[in-house]
Design brief:
alpha+beta; Ubiquitin-like (UB roll); four-stranded mixed β-sheet; about 15% helix; globular
Length: about 70
């Protein structure tokens, strides 16, 4: 689940194969916010740096995680 302003966007993501860049691309389709202008963070780990080439499993999330989307 991704929180963006007042929206809650649910995505079915494979945590082992889809990268953060893939997720941003899907969010771009749903929100109209260009992937380059997106900043994703995890609800409980807001200070953690999120890299576009990493998967959710890299961050030790295997499902059911909540993220925040902000524009840069």
């Amino acid at each position: 689940m991704v929180h963006y302003g007042k929206e809650h966007i649910e995505l079915d993501v494979d945590p082992n194969t889809e990268t953060m860049a893939d997720i941003k691309s899907r969010l771009e389709d749903k929100t109209g916010v260009a992937a380059a202008n997106q900043k994703l963070s995890f609800n409980k780990l807001k200070e953690m740096e999120v890299y576009d080439d990493k998967t959710l499993s890299f961050y030790r999330f295997n499902g059911g995680c909540f993220m925040n989307l902000e524009t840069k």
